[in-house]
Amino acid sequence: EKGNYRHYMQKEIFEQPTVVAQTLGSYLHRESVSVALPQFDFDISSIKRVTIVACGTSYYAGMVAKYWFEQFARVPVDIDVASEFRYREPVLEEGGLALFISQSGETADTLAALRHCKEKGQTIAVVVNVPTSTMAREADLLLPTHAGPEIGVASTKAFTCQLAVLAALAAHMAVKKGLMSREEEYDVVTHLLEAPACLNSALDHDEDIAAMAHLIAPARDVLYLGRGPDYPLALEGALKLKEISYIHAEGYASGEMKHGPIALIDDDVPVIVLAPSGPLFEKSISNMEEVRARGGQIVLISDAKGLEEAGEGCLATIEMPRVHPLIAPLVYAIPVQLLAYHVACVKGTDVDQPRNLAKSVTVE
Ligand code: M6R
Fold this sequence. Notes:
Blueprint: H1 8-14, H2 16-25, E1 28-29, E2 34-35, E3 49-54, H3 56-73, E4 77-81, H4 82-85, E5 96-102, H5 108-119, E6 123-128, H6 134-138, E7 141-144, H7 157-176, H8 182-203, H9 206-216, E8 221-226, H10 230-245, E9 248-253, E10 270-274, H11 281-293, E11 297-303, H12 304-310, E12 316-320, H13 328-347
Helix pairs in contact: 2-7, 2-8, 3-7, 3-10, 7-8, 7-13, 8-13, 9-13, 10-13
Bound molecules: 5-amino-5-deoxy-1-O-phosphono-D-mannitol.
Residues 55-58, 102-104, 107, 110, 153-155, 239, 243, 357, 360-361 line the site of 5-amino-5-deoxy-1-O-phosphono-D-mannitol.
């Protein structure tokens, strides 16, 4: 039921504080402020390599997770889209964890990759939203997201719940490997538990975003830029926009722009910059200057500090709460989802059932 919402997608965007809290609740222990994963019968501290395979939005969640596994657990991570994975003859050595991420648990390419990895002796972990799905049944380590049924074809709440589970998994691996002290674990858990409230503050900007959607709706092309874990968010923002508003959009790592995409920039191309304040912010500002010098119209998504430093001269700004870098990818998912949603509403497209797309892609 859509309740008071116009679309399932809108409802699902607004459910995120609740479902992320629900999901975190089953991976974090509030009283002891520690990570608590389900029981499984392999030694996670002996994992030598993590291979992440997924499609679409779930793949972008995997890209964010790569930063966390490497940063916290110091484990090398390979990541691939499922449709490419098997065909490149990946090297799958003993002691590897193959991690599959899927809302539906039925995506044909991801499932085929899972079976391939199983055959090659990898330990199979699955982050999945449908607990009765095929992938859930075939996992050694089942890590459910508790997003509830996702009806909108554009994935929203499944994504932020996937991020919540993946952050907990990376932290758990770090703890088991002796790389995360008790104090560090306490910090990570505390920041993760702050996520639902921060998602709520991000949602408070819904009306501002709705009001600026008409600036983006006429565009033929839109670029999204981000650095570090916000780079996958730029890709996700571009995917959301093209899926439901049919505007051509691309996501780039901010620093890659001058290696080609900058040639596209003129005053008809809005550039959405995802840049929370922090150590990489200066670099994002200089990328913005490059865009501006070519007449590009910038929409800056940042926190109050970032907007104060760089918000002048933007076509529009969207203010996010100031959050710990760990949860920034969850929080910055909200404005990119809302922007795509409101632009699609301005354009009058079928938000929940965009043309040519299926909720679950069960053919390879
Ligand atoms: O069910 P899955 O997570 O395996 O689906 C993967 C993709 O098909 C899915 O994320 C798709 O890209 C969405 N339409 C994105 O909004």
